[in-house]
Write a structure and sequence with these properties.
Strand content: 5-15%
Oligomer: single chain
Order of helices and strands: HEEHHEEEHHHHHH
Number of helices: 9
Bound molecules: zinc ion
Distance between the termini: 60 Å
Largest sheet: 3 strands, mixed
């Protein structure tokens, strides 16, 4: 059997163990090597570690805002298997995140960019969209697949004159061709799903433009946090959101 056929067969066997799922609203097919139960367990454990490590804000205004908007977004997500929890972390950071299973953390610093509930809904719906679309598990699956691909390919070509070329090309190819563009895909996808979700929850999608303009102003001159450098440029995401607003308004009740 030729080495190429062996290589292709190894991949086919591998893919048989992978589940295909689809993203909500955008219906993109994904390859994920974890069960939703495993993923939720991981999300739950990380959330307990964060609660131990971080100082949770007791500010009544910020907390009531996060609980109110969070509940509305969670209702619109229609996922009874998620155990929703919403927290404000007492740190001056322009960021928020959602762990698998529905644990949402918003940093206090982010409220500098938030003028009203609709704008908080932009951020929270974006983060919820990452969790609903299982982006974390998908990303880890991509990295594992790339590693397995490298091991399998390296083994098949072992000793041949192509071995070194393959390893070098595959390592770079997997990183730049597959994994890195994924993070950008995830950001745009969460913007889109988040926009539909917030509109579904009764918020005004036009406020997404104002929110990202506020973020743009705040970031000027400051060191961009890691979260922003992996995120698309604000002008690009504002342009994309403007295009999507008419579609989002169809979800408005
Ligand atoms: Zn994001």
């Amino acid at each position: 059997m030729s080495k190429v056929i062996k290589f292709i067969l190894s991949f086919l066997v591998l893919f048989a163990f992978i589940s295909c799922s689809k993203t909500p609203y955008t219906n993109r097919t994904q390859l994920i090597m974890f069960s939703p139960q495993q993923e939720m367990q991981m999300g739950y454990q990380s959330s307990r570690e964060i609660l131990k490590k971080e100082k949770i804000s007791k500010d009544p205004r910020l907390n009531s805002m996060v609980q109110r908007v969070g509940k509305n977004i969670a209702n619109a997500a229609k996922r009874d298997d998620y155990k929703w929890e919403f927290y404000v972390i007492d740190k001056d950071i322009l960021n928020a995140f959602c762990l698998p299973g529905g644990k949402i953390f918003v940093y206090k610093g982010l409220f500098k960019a938030v003028e009203n509930d609709d704008q908080l809904a932009v951020v929270m719906a974006h983060e919820v969209a990452h969790a609903l679309a299982r982006h974390g598990a998908e990303r880890v699956s991509m990295i594992q697949l790339a590693q397995i691909g490298q091991v399998v390919g390296g083994a098949v070509l072992q000793g041949s004159k192509y071995e070194n070329i393959f390893n070098a090309a595959y390592g770079l190819g997997a990183q730049f061709g597959v994994i890195l563009p994924y993070s950008r895909t995830f950001e745009y996808e969460s913007d889109e799903i988040g926009l539909y979700l917030m509109t579904n929850a009764g918020y005004d999608p036009n406020e997404s433009i104002k929110f990202w303009q506020n973020m743009k102003k705040l970031k000027k001159g400051a060191n961009p946090p890691a979260f922003l450098s992996t995120h698309p440029a604000d002008n690009d995401r504002i342009a994309r959101l403007k295009e999507l607003i008419p579609k989002a308004l169809k979800y408005y009740k």
